[in-house]
Amino acid sequence: MKKIGIVVCTNSGADYYKFDHPVEVIHSDLHLGDKVYEDFVDIKADEFYEIISKNPHIDIKTSQPPMGQIIQKYEKLRDMGYNEILTISISTKLSGIYQSTILAAEMVEGITVRAIDSKSVSYGELYLVLEAIKHIKAGLSLEEVAQKVEAVIPNINILVYVDTVKFMVKNGRLSSTAGALASLLKIKPILRMNQHDGSLVAYEKIRTSKKALNRLYEIFTEETKDRDIVAFVVYTNNKPFAEEVKKHLLTIKPGIKIELVPLTPVVGAHAGPGTLGVGYIYI
Fold first, then answer.
1. How deeply is 30 buried, as exposed, middle or buried, from its count of CB atoms within 10 A (0-12, 13-18, 19+)?
2. Which of 91, 122, 153 is the last residue in one of the domains?
3. Residue among 26, 29, 159, 41 nearest 88 (CA)
4. For range 206-222, the mean pLDDT
5. CATH number, domain at 180?
6. Are residues 121 and 31 in the same domain?
7. Burial level of 226, CB count in 10 A (0-12/13-18/19+)?
8. Strand partners for 278
9. What per-residue confidence (pLDDT) applies to 131?
10. pLDDT tens readout for residues 29-80
């Protein structure tokens, strides 16, 4: 009998969520100064943002999960009786984890692995896990589940409100030219995940934080009009602000479901404090 387990990377924020199906999380490493932390295991979101707020010039880097850790997750699911595994990874434009999940599969006997590039991050990636669980419970095959999940990806929209892009520029996560990056450092741009290729791009260049937030609300209003959606707000060290944004979104589209989720440290390391994401998924 075929049994399907799920492996997802820590960039999804899956550690902060409780699932009713076996989901194994592979954790990236966070480098703060001369210390190395395994995301969520050694350091959680609140502690991380407190550290970087108090030490704004601390050297921050991240590194992918070691191959051995991915192999261990596969072997754990296999030993639990799951002979098929669906992996869901952060966008390949932001990390090489997707390729690692494929390579690791070649080193473990007794399993079939189907890998998905979410072309997303945070709750956009996590939502795909929830969709996968729904279809697994409905009795679909591994490939059928994967195709259902991949069909959702173009419907995931994420807008990012940033206090500064310096963290994203420093770590190479923002797709742009050198000249454009110089100008972005002087403004409050709205960034956007391109759900077609998974890149993070500067969507609109705006001069002030207030105007950027108002424009974000306008985009949300325009793009969700007459559409059924699930929405989410992702916060860093600014949960009260996120709660205000959630309330405002509910005035635009009353009655919708809006998840409020923390941005896990290995993603926050590139976003920086003060960052807030607003996402909406067409359903």
1. buried
2. 153
3. 26
4. 94
5. 3.30.1180.10
6. yes
7. exposed
8. 159, 233
9. 98
10. 999 999 999 999 999 999 999 998 888 889 999 999 999 999 999 999 999 9
- Environment class of 80 (CB within 10 Å of its CB; exposed 0-12, middle 13-18, buried 19+): exposed
Q: Which residue has the higher pLDDT, 22 or 162?
A: 22
One-letter amino acid at 171 equals N
CATH of residue 33: 3.40.50.10170
pLDDT on residue 169: 67
Q: Which two tokens stand for residue 59?
A: 């050297």
Q: Residue 50's domain spans which residues?
A: 4-153
Tens digits of residue pLDDT in 250-271? 999 999 999 999 999 999 998 8
pLDDT-based confidence at 182, cuts 50/70/90? Answer: very low
Using the predicted structure, report yes or no on whether residue 179 has a pLDDT greater than 50.
Answer: no
Q: How many CB atoms lie within 10 A of CB 36?
A: 13
Which pLDDT does position 167 carry in this prediction? 73
